[in-house]
Amino acid sequence: MKPADTPAPQSAPARSPRVLLVDDDAEIVEAMRYALETHGFEVSVARDGNEGLALTETIQPDLLILDMMMPKRSGFLVLEQLRRSGHDNVKVIMITANEGNRHKAYAEMLGVNDYLRKPFPMDRLIDSARRLTAERTTQ
After folding, report:
1. What is the domain partition of the chain in residue ranges?
2. 104 partner at 20 to 30 Å CA-CA among 31, 92, 111, 118?
3. How many CB atoms lie within 10 A of CB 20?
4. Is 139 exposed, middle or buried (0-12, 13-18, 19+ CB in 10 A)?
5. What is the pTM of this model?
6. Which string of DSSP letters, residue by residue, matches 57-109?
């Protein structure tokens, strides 16, 4: 006798990578949000560093895209606080209009995974986000 045909167990669909954009420039945020969502990312937005820290705790993003210069708390201060509070595993792309190499060196010392100078091509951001979130899921 043949067992009843039972459907094969289905695995849950993979969740979209969660990205938190922390930037005070509304136009840049909307451009990045649109590009990321179009490429399958789940995007949340914080408009300043303090909000970014709070949302990081709440949504636990796979990737943080962090502007260097913001009101209330700079990207550097956000990153320093995250690292002090044990968020060493969150991937970070820092974006800035600053041309100085000193800032880049400090960002790298704090553990940023990529550093983009504004203006940057959106495909560069998407490529970096894909690479960093893929690394996270394979660890």
Report:
1. 18-126
2. 31
3. 24
4. exposed
5. 0.85
6. HHH--SEEEEESS-SSS-HHHHHHHHHHTT--SSEEEEEES---HHHHHHHHH
The CATH classification number of 18-126 equals 3.40.50.2300
Enter the tokens of residue 1. 């006798």
Q: Are 126 and 39 in contact (CB under 8 A)?
A: yes
Q: Which residues pair with 91 in a beta bridge?
A: 63
9, 99 Cβ separation under 8 angstroms: no
Please enumerate in sequence order all residues whose Cβ is within 8 A of that of 33, keeping only pairs 6 or more positions apart, or say none: 21, 43, 45
Check if the beta carbon of residue 96 is closer than 8 Å to that of residue 66: no
